Structures are given as C-alpha cells and as structure tokens.
C-alpha cells in the first residue's frame, strides 16, 4: 500500500504548498486546500479503497495539524471523525482476523 501512502503525502504537501503560495489569490488557495479534505473524505468513505492503520495515523496527524488553522477547524474535525471511525472498523477487522 505504499502508493496510497505516497498519495496521502502528496495531498498533504499540496495543502501546505497552497498555504505558502502567496502568488495565488486567497480564494484559489483555499479551494485547493478544501479539495485536499474532499479527496481524503471520499477516500475514507469508500470501503473498497484500501487503508491501513499506518495510513490512517498519517491522515490523523495531518488533520491535527490542519485543525490549528482557524479556517479549517470544522473540516479537520469532520475528517478526524471519519478517520477514527475507519480506525475502529480496522481494529475490529484485525481482531476478527486474529481470532481475538
């Protein structure tokens, strides 16, 4: 699943790149950052798309950092809830797989 971890890293980098890019107008920067949240949300909402705990933790760390930015607190909180739900599902699946 390294290709998905790479995708997550690219999304995270794009989010922060948009924040730093002062040449773009603020509407375009925010639109890019919102798209990053939308892609991650879609990814988590699709059970057929693979995620593992490492990837979920990486997404979680991104959200915690993005949450510190006032304009993205609500989106970060919503995405964190989706991540936590997916972690719970992954943990249940792992326990069932291991026979716990």
Keywords:
mainly alpha; about 80% helix; elongated
Which secondary structure elements does this structure contain, and how are they paired or packed?
Elements: H1 2-20, H2 26-45, H3 53-67, H4 73-98
Helix pairs in contact: 1-2, 1-3, 2-4, 3-4
Description:
This protein is an all-alpha fold and 100 residues long. The chain has one domain (2-98). It has helices spanning 2-20, 26-45, 53-67, 73-98.
Helix/sheet category = mainly alpha
Model regions low in confidence, pLDDT < 50 over at least 5 residues: none
Total strand count, please? 0
User: Treating each run of at least 4 consecutive H or I residues as one helix, how many helices?
Assistant: 4
Strand content: under 5%
- Give the SSE string: HHHH
Q: Helical proportion?
A: over 70%
Q: What is the first-to-last residue Cα distance?
A: 25 Å
Overall geometry comes to elongated
Count of discrete domains: 1
> For the residues shown, what is the average pLDDT?
87
Largest sheet: none
| Gyration radius over CA | 15 Å
């Amino acid at each position: 699943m390294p290709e998905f971890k790479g995708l997550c890293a690219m999304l995270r980098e794009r989010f922060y790149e948009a924040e730093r890019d002062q040449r773009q107008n603020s509407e375009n920067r925010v639109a890019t950052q919102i798209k990053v949240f939308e892609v991650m949300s879609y990814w988590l909402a699709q059970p057929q798309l693979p995620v593992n705990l490492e990837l979920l933790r990486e997404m979680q760390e991104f959200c915690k950092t993005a949450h510190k930015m006032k304009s993205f607190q609500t989106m970060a909180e919503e995405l964190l809830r989706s991540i936590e739900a997916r972690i719970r599902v992954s943990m249940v699946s792992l326990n069932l797989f291991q026979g716990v």
